[in-house]
Write a structure and sequence with these properties.
The relative contact order is 0.12. This protein has two domains: 74 residues, Immunoglobulins (Immunoglobulin-like, Sandwich); 155 residues, Lipocalin, CATH 2.40.128. With 275 residues, the protein is mainly β. The chain contains three helices and 20 strands. Strands 8, 9, 10, 11, 12, 15, 16, 17, 18, 19 and 20 form an eleven-stranded antiparallel beta sheet that branches. Strands 4-3-6-7 form a four-stranded antiparallel beta sheet, with no helix packed on it.
Length: 275
């Protein structure tokens, strides 16, 4: 019995002799204040603004613009808005010595759609800006539809020569200069990639488009449709980079789109010929 008592007392002495480890208080820096920035229209251009972060001590920033580019990390950048409307520009920042992030949002109003002059690529796209416009149809060559994970890649899918669904070959994608109108003529049916690629009745949406010079990947010209419109397949996004445009050939690239029209991961390349 005595041995057990001695062992117990030794254990208690050992426990009591240990110094508890206490953590030192950690002081976090203050939350950053709301950043300040300016929005100034480019002279003689009602569709471009220059945004500039004028706050101090920001070691990181992220612009969410609603225009093109959609995001930026630069201290100052030029944002292009091809369509009229009200847009929100948000600056998110983190500050040196601060804790967390802060943001500020300003509105910009674009009063009119951008209109490119009838020269060069616009003329090729629209049939030299004639009143009847110009229509494009899928090419019969292999790779008329190419799909890949990144811009210009094609490892996911490449259509064989003449290998599209028949209803895709009778589709027409038509552009007019006057009124900048885009008309998708599908003869009443389109392939639905959101329903097992079934060929089914579909009513397209006709509306205006914008030709936007140099705003795409690697400085490519763009055709910008409206959300819900497409050129190629229904699961392609409405902002189209022009890779090649001649009198008889049009090659475009577009991101994937979800069923609700939002951008998704992956890229298409479509090859068309003039009708």
């Amino acid at each position: 019995m005595m041995n057990k008592i001695i062992v117990f007392l030794l254990m208690m002495i050992t426990i009591l002799s240990c110094d508890p480890q206490s953590e030192k208080d950690v002081t976090l820096g203050p939350l950053p204040g709301s950043p300040d920035f300016t929005v100034v229209f480019v002279p003689n251009d009602s569709n471009r603004v220059v945004v500039t972060d004028v706050s101090s001590d920001n070691f990181s920033r992220l612009w969410i613009t609603g225009g093109n580019p959609t995001t930026s990390k630069l201290q100052s950048d030029t944002i292009y808005f091809p369509k009229k409307g009200e847009y929100s520009i948000t600056l998110n920042i983190s500050q040196t010595g601060g804790n967390g992030t802060a943001s500020n949002t300003k509105k910009v109003i674009i009063t009119k759609d951008a209109q490119a002059p009838c020269t060069g690529a616009v003329g090729l796209l629209t049939g030299e800006c004639g009143p009847s416009g110009k229509c494009w149809k899928f090419s019969q060559v292999g790779g008329a539809i190419t799909v890949g994970p990144t811009y210009g890649s094609g490892e996911w899918f490449k259509s064989p020569a003449g290998g599209l669904v028949p209803s895709q070959y009778d589709d027409r994608y038509c552009f007019t200069f006057d009124g900048a109108n885009f008309d998708y003529k599908n003869q009443g049916r389109s392939v639905n990639p959101f329903n097992g690629y079934v060929d089914e009745p579909f009513t397209p949406v006709t509306g205006p488009y914008t030709f936007s010079a140099g705003t795409g990947q690697n400085g490519a010209d763009q055709i910008i449709l409206n959300k819900g419109q497409f050129m190629g397949t229904r699961d392609s996004y409405f902002e189209l980079d022009i890779v090649k445009l001649t009198e008889t050939e049009l090659i475009i690239r577009a991101p994937f789109a979800k069923a609700n029209g939002d951008k998704a991961d992956g890229w298409f390349e479509f090859k068309f010929v003039a009708e």
